[in-house]
Write a structure and sequence with these properties.
The protein is mainly beta. The chain has one domain (17-52, 69-163): PEBP-like (Phosphatidylethanolamine-binding Protein, Alpha-Beta Complex), CATH 3.90.280.10. It has one helix at 142-149, and strands at residues 17-19, 44-47, 55-62, 70-79, 84-85, 100-101, 121-130, 153-163.
């Protein structure tokens, strides 16, 4: 796999896993973590980290959004020593855990939760283990991070949550 480190073709191993205590893979995201709740980030933990890992990149996006994939979270240069994120991570560019939060599709730093206009959408939380730190400023977007990490992805772990807006009666 070392010769084929491309962010779009990396196959995840059985060892590298991403989990949340807030929802199961493929399950519904509680409204606390959405625009209808407190709009805070869910807690995440990961294990089975590749030995050569220098940093992590976390991207959460919604491919079911109309027109284009909506990005809810871009967080890069998470130190290799970090294996979990608490719920309600700060929305500042530089959290105390380390790393840098880029701009999401709302134009904000940090996590902005699900807010689908209609239907049930899927939210992909993708964690990439990289063999380097990325030399990028906080103002970057998902595409900049994906370009910078090309050929440096060791492994990828994914958890998918779903959400449908609750009707207001």
């Amino acid at each position: 796999m070392a010769n084929n480190r491309n962010h779009s073709t990396v196959e995840k191993t059985q060892d590298f896993k991403l989990k949340s205590s807030a929802f199961k893979n493929g399950g519904m995201i509680p409204s606390l973590y959405t625009s209808q709740g407190d709009d805070i980030s869910p807690p995440l933990t990961w294990s089975g980290v590749p030995d050569e890992t220098k940093s992590f990149v976390l991207i959460c996006d919604d491919p079911d959004a109309p027109l284009f994939t909506w990005v809810h979270w871009v967080y890069f240069n998470i130190p290799a020593s970090v294996t979990s994120l608490p719920k309600a991570l700060t929305k500042k560019p530089k959290p105390k855990q380390g790393g840098i939060q880029g701009k999401n599709s709302y134009g904000n730093y940090g996590y902005d939760g699900p807010s689908p206009l209609w239907g049930t959408h899927r939210y992909f939380f993708k964690l990439y283990a990289l063999d380097k730190m990325l030399n990028l400023p906080p103002v970057v977007k998902k595409s900049d991070v994906l370009d910078a990490m090309k050929d440096h992805v060791l492994d990828k772990a994914v958890i998918i949550g779903k959400y449908k807006k609750k009707s207001r009666v």
